[in-house]
Amino acid sequence: MTSKLIKALILTTVLCYGQKNWLENPSLKAQPDGSIPGWTAYRGTSGAPMHVDYENKISGKNSVWGEYYKGKVPEGREAGLKTPAQFDVLTENYFPFGIMQDVTFEKPTMEAVTFGGWSKAENVKSIRQYCIYLDVEYDDGTFDWGRQANWAAGTHEWQHALGLFWPKKPVKKISFFAFIRHDAEGKAWFDDMELFREPPDVHVTGFSTNTLAPLHMDGMQLQWGFFKNGISCTAKLLDEKQNIIAEESWNSRTIKWNVPNAKGAKICSITASDGKVERTFQHEISFRFDPPVNPVKSGYRIWIEDSMVNVSPLTYPTQDAKSTIDVELARGERESAQLLVTASNQAALERVNVTISPLRHASDKELSGLAKWERVAYLTRVEPYARHPDGIQEGQIWLPDPLLPPREFTVPKNATQGVWLTFFADRNATLGDYTGEVVVTIDGKTQSVPIKLTVFDFALPETFSYPTAFSIMDGWLFNAYPDGDKNARRRQAWDVMLDHRLNPDDISRTEPPRIEDLLHAQKRGMNRFNVLNMVPKPKGNPLWVCWSPVKDYTPELFQEFKTRLDPYVQQLRKHNLTQYAYVYGFDERSDEFYPTIAKVHQFIKENYPDIAFFTTSKMYGSLKKDPTRTDCYANDWYCPLTTNYNDELSETLRKKGHQVWWYTCGAPWYPDINFASVEYPFIEARLIAWLGYQHKVDGFLFWHVNLWKGPYRFDETTCYQPDFQWSNITGTIGDGQFLYPGIDGVLPSIRLANLRDGSEDYDYLTLLGESARSLCDQLAQPGSVRNFTRDHRKLRQLRRDMAQKLTQK
To answer: What is the third-level CATH fold of 22-197?
Structure first.
């Protein structure tokens, strides 16, 4: 199939919409002088210049291209650079490349806004700023900023991005941008921009392709979706002569198509229908990936990596990779390490199994505790995602996180398979050094890996030091596991969280937790729990209730609260549980909710003064903007996003008797700390506890840990799980998914293990006291939540230093 024919097929897609495009000159047709009628360069002379390309294009005569590199002044823009010092300050947002156009509507309406366009990329690095971007002005003068449709980073041929936005008010004006800026850099071409004022019907969105290597070296995963349910589609993978390589049909809103042998594929043709409209869309197969070189030329190699390091199936051992396992831990602590098995590109490794010998002290005593192994499982990347410069290499598809129960496994050729090792020392374990070995059996032959384990002469407190609120939600749990004893199912899931020294909480619960479950959790170390989300008791069986509108807070609702809470709080007091209890409400609500929040706060203080009132409302941010406000104190516990946290304001609030927690979610993005995405370095899940201690934060909240889609369960016979549906909230892949649905119950993850290790590090810091804050300063810049090291070796050394001080203490 010629390049000309491919572009002709794509052009059919461009022309098939049959809707009014509100953009002037959407094909970016250039004048002889190089100007593009209707369009201007993003930021004018403060931005990178537009260039016309008559060869690379989708339709019409030309496309537009430009490039943006941090720290580089585009040719012809030297005059816009006032001083080198100013340029250094503005290096992440100076001379970006983009095009823009303002569209004003004579008659403002609330009709849907569909927006999109085509782009080609060359070596683009981007977290989430290589995109189409809308700023929307409403008829009343208010704005809705930053509606995005993202293209994939990397190097690719023409790719389509399409977004949908439902306005809250009549729209007067839309500023339409296509750009590469801020965290992104590289070279990009733009063509055939789209702005429609009606919803899409069966349009394809989010089309992406990626390799299935090393599981299938010629395999490909294709992903796309639709803007609504009720669409059936058939896809055909075509070679250059339009012969069909593979074909499949679905009735689903989101599609993952795994083609084990896609060699020679050039076009994916998707025919979609909702029963009224049928369209065919043509997408070019354009991804490029240069895999890393496997240094293992024959047989296999076994090597060791730190538990804080992300290791994919295409991550290979360096020449100096470790070959022994070293673990240090206190009594009552768990620590992990990664054992990796890398196969050469000659053959897969069959019948691989692992055993761990007893660990023995110099006195010949066996370790009182636990040593276990799990298989690392791999899930497929999805586009678009918020990239991290320290994440897995662009172009790879398999990302590590879930931990599967132990059983015999296979390592595909040219692949690395992870084995997750966890060690635990009981509170009565003998201090000192232990030795043992991990025995790896491959097709009947064995190889041993030495273990050295050191137990420090102190114990972690039985009650966790780290205050947390991690939401494990019954709605999603019982949706995945509808059968059997639900109380037993919940207890198993809670125990997984408690094994990781994290509170099995739920900020959105609309039924108070069972007293017997709380007593069990308290015995295992729990230190905080939510009694109730302060919303009306829901009708039916919704997955969750996040918040309720102001109109719901009637006198009848407050009586309902009292009727439900009075007998329950009596039971909490009977069992001395109110010291850990709070009620939650008004998730991320703004000013219009403040009077109602004050009423709920007063109600709690008058009726249950021994229970805290906790919100993530915007009151903290309001006080940060205007400290003179008097209507922003109706919280016992505040909880801003990490990036909005302020040391001075927080200390002022503590002096008034408040606590100040913090949280992350789909935001923030690099360079700020967050572990919500499976793309981010695992160490950030551990470091967040260190930063919390450094800034005297009173606790950490996370909104979800089991955000699964339907009753899907892992196929535990394989370590590759291509069908799992990630959450994708603002490009944060895996947000709210730190537990996974196994056959017999929930499964842990590497991110959860690093959160556990952060909780245990927090125990060290708390035991050491005020002097530990200077140790935190060695990992993160004081006064900042952005500047910190991701060097796991430095963290290990600081832990060792703390252990020595605690042993002496």
So the answer is: Jelly Rolls (2.60.120)
